[in-house]
Amino acid sequence: MTHPLKTVLVTGATAGFGHAIALRLVKDGFRVIATGRRLERLDALAKEAGENLLPFQLDMTDLDAVKALPGSLPQGWQQVDVLINNAGLALGLEKAWETKPADWEQMIATNVTGLVEITRALLPGMVERNAGHVISLGSTAGIYPYPGANVYGATKAFVDQFMRNLRSDLLGKQVRATNIAPGLCGGSEFSQVRLGDDAKAAAFYDKTKPLLPEDIAETVAWVLKLPPHVNINQIEMMPTCQASAGLAVDRSMA
Ligand code: NDP
Ligand code: 8X3
């Protein structure tokens, strides 16, 4: 591979999208720094991927650790050319007034604050070298509201606008910025984490053919391999079995 951007840092590589993205990008010839909280998962991933994958434990809510990047990475891995902001989570599907405050805080800390701080840590190096790419995982939940999405959807709307604003700041630099916003996607731990129950999580995908982590990895790989003069700003993607089906009307009040 002769891609000018060589080293990719993927957040949340212990499961789901991040795991698939890390494996795919190693296969495509990149060096990948795979991060997440569960070190045993990262070590297993490193065994599978080989020497071009560095397992690096990182909790996105540990802001001291996030801000210590890239200097805290081992020698030879400190030049991060591509940042993939994937780590994130949804907690619960309750109505806003029934949710746990700690769940909202955890979503904001991970999906917004952690993402912003790691971008702040790694972007200056890209700008200085005048080469780089930041890809974030937003969500259709940041575009289309639905009951129970409340703060989760709002964090993803933040990601959408943050990436658009990065593009504005990066005009004139050879540093790209992309937001990928998927809809229903199975094959990851997302719904188990959200619902805290394996049976409920499985039922969520009942009779559907959702996107899979490999579909997201394919999309990331494509966005990355486009020639440097092409910037994909936004991708909204859904499984064919899903669509935005219009606004709801309550007819019980007349
Ligand atoms: P998974 O639950 O399978 O994976 C989430 C990853 O994020 C895990 O590797 C987890 O690692 C990591 N993570 C969570 N919290 C932290 C933290 N505090 N610090 C570091 N890493 C953390 O979910 P998906 O792969 O499905 O989701 C990936 C991203 O895509 C998320 O941002 C999600 O919001 C978004 N998304 C998901 C969709 C879906 O339907 N699945 C659709 C649209 C967007 P660990 O627990 O080891 O720290
Ligand atoms: C995940 C997609 O529709 O479950 O971001 O919110 S959805």
Automatic annotation (TrEMBL):
One of its GO terms (molecular function) is oxidoreductase activity, acting on the CH-OH group of donors, NAD or NADP as acceptor. PROSITE patterns: ADH_SHORT. SMART domains: PKS_KR. It comes from the Bacteria. Keywords: Oxidoreductase. Residues 6-183 form the Ketoreductase domain. Belongs to the short-chain dehydrogenases/reductases (SDR) family. This is NADP-dependent 3-hydroxy acid dehydrogenase YdfG. It comes from Acetobacter indonesiensis. The lineage of its organism: Bacteria, Pseudomonadati, Pseudomonadota, Alphaproteobacteria, Acetobacterales.
